[in-house]
Design brief:
By secondary structure, the protein is α/β, with parallel strands linked by helices. It folds into two domains: 1-479, Radical SAM ThiC family, central domain (TIM Barrel, Alpha-Beta Barrel), CATH 3.20.20; 481-547, no CATH class. Helices cover 41% and strands 11% of the residues. The chain is built from 21 helices and 15 strands. The chain has helices at residues 6-11, 86-93, 124-129, 135-144, 148-157, 197-209, 225-233, 243-250, 260-273, 289-293, 302-314, 319-322, 324-334, 355-373, 391-401, 422-435, 455-476, 481-493, 497-503, 507-517, 538-547; strands spanning 30-36, 45-46, 52-60, 63-67, 132-133, 160-161, 176-177, 183-188, 214-217, 239-241, 277-280, 337-340, 378-382, 407-410, 440-442. The strands form four sheets. It has an eight-stranded parallel barrel with strand order 8-9-10-11-12-13-14-15, surrounded by six helices. It has a three-stranded antiparallel beta sheet with strand order 1-3-4. A two-stranded parallel ribbon has the order 2-5. α14 (355-373) links the parallel β12 (337-340) and β13 (378-382). α8 (243-250) packs across α9. Mean pLDDT is 90; it is low at 1-23. Bound molecules: 5'-deoxyadenosine (5AD), (4-amino-2-methylpyrimidin-5-yl)methyl dihydrogen phosphate (MP5), iron/sulfur cluster (SF4) and zinc ion. 5'-deoxyadenosine (5AD) is lined by residues 187-189, 191, 218, 410, 444, 448, 452-453.
Length: 549
């Protein structure tokens, strides 16, 4: 069994991050361009700092095309990413305080990041309700190409969330909600059976380079505060965790020893470290546990199974539900966005939309409303395994029962029998639930149900999910989505092969396929490819036939 040597953790931390994880542009015609967001409207208060927003631009023969995607961050390097929010946060909240970070002091005297005291912080939801156009809300409005007023309205009402812990100054914020570009989350992290720090760092680089919109560190089994620190400092996208995993680690893997006070301690430590959103399985009530007993696959959520084990052992109500007001108070103090966990999501198509799942969903709606009352941002986690004909019902029920809080789904897998190919079986479900309004799609890799993903699995899962998310965006008519496809289609009809590679979700993969049969430079201008050859190229004939038509 592999473990993580503490020495290697420290060596790989911020100070000495390996250079082979540097993020590079996916294609020479792609680059990161920075634009300035519109000035703060005169009738609104807010951060009046300049808001610089990076976009991914593709240079084509017709001119530049801005892709509606997340961006590869700056190079992952020894110092972490630039702290793009540091100045604006200082303007808004005043001086930072010095604290010791969880996991002990930083190695080699690396400076601690700025830390805000809990009582200084207001949530983006509270700011939005006060009509305050924060830097973060102005940033996401520009990124999504919508008005600030619309973002303020959606964040205030809870229809959208902007996870942005002030203690994560490297963050380029993103907005998650049904009216916005469908986001993709990448799950990462070691497990006790397979823990190799270099491989974890490689996965982070693959995720950021591949255009993940958020990442979750789901590490279990060993103390990994340093890994989380490294991820946070090198992540330009929001970072999520499931704090009950670290809590379980601290009680030696014995769920009956979990407690509210331990959970609160872990939650606060992770908040100080800069985690942007956390999954909490507070909706799995004791009464719902028997409903799962008649299922084909019982409880497949890790966090859900822990809470069920705890309440069965103690014959008491879920402590996250019992202490939910205190949980909200901590979340509010750090603007931690809550991801209300679906501990009873179906783990098989046979269990989809059953009474256990829907009972928990109703409770998640109540919890989301309670979060709203105190200005805490919240989204709702969803399944799992759902056959296509039950997806619309599930998505509509979520909107109805949870007042349109953003729906964040794991897939869902449309079939149960694709082992080894569950990135595909689940991307099919994900595209359908995205088209029905799911706001963020949690990716699934080819290793699902079989083992811990390696970097190549992460890449395959992420590409599958970017396809699913974009399919949903075309269906929803999201800004910039159709224009991207149209740019590709024109490049295709005009035989601009290099432009086609540059516009592809996976430029290197596209080019490799073309190169396999036609590697010559001249072939990149040819009016055919090896599929049909010059005499049978339909598009070439089409140009001639339609020329005078
Ligand atoms: C809830 C889902 O989270 C994913 N999951 C759980 N732990 C990890 C990890 N360390 N790395 C990647 N994915 C993980 C699995 O896909 C699981 O089904
Ligand atoms: C969309 C989604 N659902 C669930 C989890 C947590 O995993 P678990 O519930 O197994 O602890 C997750 N990270 N993302
Ligand atoms: S993925 Fe593996 S370890 Fe996780 S619940 Fe399924 S069988 Fe258990
Ligand atoms: Zn499954």
């Amino acid at each position: 069994m592999n473990t993580i040597p503490v020495a290697s953790l420290r060596r790989r931390h911020v100070d000495e991050a390996p250079t082979d994880h540097v993020v590079q542009a996916a294609h020479p015609q792609q680059r990161r361009v920075v634009r300035e967001a519109p000035p703060l409207p005169h009738d609104l208060s807010g951060d009046d700092d300049t808001v610089l927003v990076p976009f991914l631009e593709v240079a084509t023969a017709e001119g530049p095309v801005i892709l509606p995607t997340s961006l590869p961050g700056a190079p992952l390097g020894s110092d972490g990413l630039p702290q793009v929010r540091a100045q604006v946060l200082r303007h808004r909240y005043g001086a930072t305080v010095t604290r010791t970070l969880p996991g002990g002091p930083l190695p080699n005297g690396a400076p601690a990041r700025p830390t805000y005291a809990a009582n200084q912080i207001l949530t983006q939801r509270t700011l939005a309700r006060r009509g305050f156009g924060s830097w973060e809300l102005r940033f996401v409005a520009a990124r999504e190409q919508v008005t600030l007023e619309r973002v303020l309205d959606d964040v205030a009402s809870g229809r959208a969330v902007v996870p942005a812990n002030p203690n994560h100054p490297e963050l380029e914020p993103t907005i998650i909600g049904r009216n916005y570009r469908t986001k993709v989350n990448v799950n990462l992290g070691a497990s006790s059976v397979r823990a190799d720090i270099d491989e974890e760092l490689a996965k982070v680089a693959v995720a950021l380079q591949g255009g993940a919109d958020t990442i979750m560190d789901l590490s279990t089994g060993t103390k990994l505060a340093w890994v989380r620190e490294w991820i946070l400092r090198n992540s330009s996208v929001p970072v999520g965790t499931v704090p009950i995993y670290e809590a379980l680690d601290r009680v030696g893997g014995r769920p009956e020893r979990l407690s509210w006070s331990l959970f609160a301690e872990v939650l606060e430590e992770q908040a100080l470290q800069g985690v942007d959103y956390v999954t909490v399985h507070a909706g799995l009530l004791r009464d719902y546990v028997p409903l799962a007993a008649r299922r084909t696959t019982g409880i497949v959520s890790r966090g859900g199974s822990l809470m069920a084990a705890w309440s069965q052992h103690h014959q008491r109500e879920n402590f996250l539900f019992e202490h939910f007001d205190e949980l909200l108070a901590i979340a509010g103090r750090y603007d931690l966005t809550l991801s209300l966990g679906d501990g009873l999501r179906p783990g098989s198509t046979a269990d989809a939309n059953d009474e256990a799942q829907l009972a928990e969903l109703r409770t998640l709606g109540d919890l989301a409303r309670r979060a709203g009352e105190v200005g805490v941002q919240a989204m709702i986690e969803g399944p799992g395994h759902v056959p296509l004909h039950k997806i619309a019902e599930n998505a509509l029920l979520e909107q109805e029962l949870c007042d349109d809080a953003p729906f964040y789904t794991l897939g869902p897998l449309a079939i149960d029998v694709a082992a080894g190919w569950d990135h595909v079986s689940s991307a099919i479900g994900a595209a359908v639930i995205g088209a029905h309004g799911a706001a963020m799609l949690c990716y699934v890799t080819p290793k699902e149900h079989l083992g811990l993903p390696n970097p190549e699995d992460v890449r395959a899962g992420l590409i599958a999910y970017r396809i699913a998310a974009h399919a949903a965006d075309l269906a929803k008519g999201i800004n910039g989505a159709q224009a991207w496809d149209d740019a590709m289609s024109r490049a295709r009809y005009e035989f601009r092969w290099n432009d086609q590679f540059a516009l592809a979700i996976d430029p290197a993969g596209a080019q490799a396929h073309h190169d396999e049969s036609l590697p010559a430079r001249a072939a990149k201008d040819a009016e055919f490819c090896s599929m049909c050859g010059p005499n049978f190229c339909a598009m070439a004939h089409s140009h001639r036939a339609l020329h005078d038509a």
